[in-house]
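Dig into what follows:
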Amino acid sequence: MNREKRYKVLIVEDKPTYSEPLRMCIKQDESFEVLAVTDSVRDAFKLVKTGLPDAIIVDLQLAEGDGFDLLNQIHGAKESLSVFPYILVTTKFNSETVMEILCDGLADYVFSKSNLSYSPEEILKHLRLLSKQFYRNRKPETQLINTALEKEAMLRKRIANELNQYYLNQGSQGIEFLIEIIYRVIQLPKTEKIQIGHYYIEIGKLYNTTPNTIDMSIRRLLNGAFLRTAQEDLERLYTPYVDIGRGAPRNKEFIVYVADKIRNENL
């Protein structure tokens, strides 16, 4: 790597809990400098045109604007940019959007914040790899495909499709909580004890909410669906794994049931 050149990195992130550790991590590498940190799509696009960053790290979920809109703006202006930045995307969830990014070639790499391996150091590692290609002639399309992330997105979509069968309120945040928890349970060996409370804490940090809020959101979701569903559908969907005679399944009971059902498909 050319030590005389400091590569410029633009960070587009609205949460300081993510942007500050990332900024500090990049700052410690003498090959890079942080051009700016912004939470605005408008300001970020201006910086891409005037600051000419070598790489840009974009979070999809922003308080002001949408990271996906920024990606489209950058690619729409590629002919007028003297330096087309390498693009790294971060996201908490929204698997369909992640798959769209991978398929359309809007990013060089996509990082899932819900992945246990996610860290500022992991992003810096990929910046170092990409820096070997800075300023080379290339088409602005995806050169790195994160196969693990693609599989993760497909699994999350499979979970969402499964949940859609149970007459759950699809507009409820409880659905997002269920997808995150069921995804994690599927990753566990079947012999390992499932600590649902542990997942409530982990997902609570991800969504900036409390474990009790997650528990109650899922509880209301299941109770509502149970009351709306006809008896014959309840028997078809839940038995023989869930005793519908005593009412809506408990949160853990439902989560384990769905996780086992999907996991067994891949055996």
